[in-house]
Fold this sequence. Notes:
Number of strands: 0
CATH superfamily of the largest domain: MFS general substrate transporter like domains
Shape: globular
Number of domains: 3
Order of helices and strands: HHHHHHHHHHHHHHHHHHHHHH
Number of helices: 22
Radius of gyration: 25 Å
Largest sheet: none
Strand content: under 5%
Distance between the termini: 17 Å
Mean pLDDT: 78
Low-confidence stretches: 1-16, 533-538
CATH class of the largest domain: Mainly Alpha
Structural class: mainly alpha
Amino acid sequence: MSDATADGTAGGWSPERSAAGGHNPYLIAFVVSIATFMEVLDTTIANVALRHIAGNLAIGIDESTYVITSYLVANAIVLSISGWLATVIGRKRFYMICVATFTLASLLCGFAWNLQSLVLFRILQGLGGGGMATSEQAILADSFPPAKRGQAFAIYGVAVVVAPVVGPTLGGWITDTYSWHWVFLINVPMGLLSLFLVGSLVSEPSGAEEERRRLLSRGLRFDYLGFIFIAVGLGCLEFVLDEGQRNDWFGSSMITAFALASALSLLALIPWELMREDPIVDIRLLGQRQFGACFLVMLGTGAVLIATTQMLPQLLQTELNYTAMLAGLVLSPGGIITMIMMPVVGRLISVVQPKYLLVVGAAIAAVSMWHLTGLTGDITYGYAAWSRVLLGLGLPFLFLPVTTASYDGVPPGKTNQASALINVARNLGGSMGVALAQTLLAQRAQFHQSRLIEHVAPSDLGYQTTIDAMSRFFQAQGSSASDAASQAIAWVGVTLQRQVDLLAYIDVFWTLAIIGVIMIPVALTLRSIDLTAPAKRH
């Protein structure tokens, strides 16, 4: 499918829509990636500091999780409407407002004096951070012709994919070396640098400015009801996904109430937005074959990336006694491979159909999850790191093609909306993946314990043999006969619990592998893109 036009534009791109102005567009890609890295990093960097925050503010560990939840909820609400806000306010202005808000909120978080103030400042931080990704992707989509967007998104993708990997390690080091306050304060100099560079180098495209004036000339009609639907729907959904497992899901009246509010709001949003001429969220895009398939693939990509980023360090720390730093370092080789592969895949996008690259990426992601199903109680650092290397190899084949293909066929005036929805998919997919993984872990642990406990009985021959062998072992270590028998029983209990936990983690990784496999047929539904016309015209 060719989107080339007679005036030399292709895929909806034209020089008038470029945000690069007279500057090198690759420089612009690097500049906007600074704030991206900072914002995405903040979604994971605070996780490892929760215990320190709880101790310092004299609160329970469960209460400290609101530091994470408040950020995610605010982030989801703004992210969904950021496309509309960027169009109305002006993309560059809106972007700089978001960066300034995020930077100021980070400073306030660093000086928070109690839980209430910290949660309030995290909400403000989430509101600022939620609008950045949408503007950044739209800036890149408009600054590069379609044939070169893959290379642009490669620079941006390094920030989005590597930041969650670096977050836990960096957060652990900062918290252990200094204090949890610096987890937030490090954003301040980066935010100020981003504001200076964006203000100096990024331009407001004349085409986008004309669209803004046309929109305002008809009178600013804010879709209040649509905003309420999307805010309640996504905000409550994010809360349910983040807090569900800790509150026994639908066994909790609070979780049930939030789930019902989310479902009713999102269902009401569909007919309401379809009837409006200027919807605050253009859900019609989801009905398009190309964009809808990209949305689903991005959901799966977010689920696999964020779920494994949380589950693998958790496994290593709880079952293998890794330190927070060492567990974080297991993720590092995968991040290095991703950085190496991003520019390679960025070039491949100009010669290989995105759907075939997505198939490769989904297959590699599935294999990396399958690799982790071979868990045992004595896996090495290399075994765990190799799984992240495989995933790090596959992620560029997923993230870059799906981001690039999602703009194919999208009208130039809808790039802000498309970018908002794709980022909603990434964040929502990550939350769904973590919620699914944690729920499966708890439920499958109960299942395996009920099955394995059947064999821990005095009448079981295997149990008798094990107790006798371990009793002799402890006696050989100097324990009396009665103490050795007690130690043997305790050893069996500890070993059984460890086996239960490992089997539950294996089930989680099997599920994530299946998600990777499901992405393959979804990716194949993408239509082919004309890879030659844009390259010839620019």
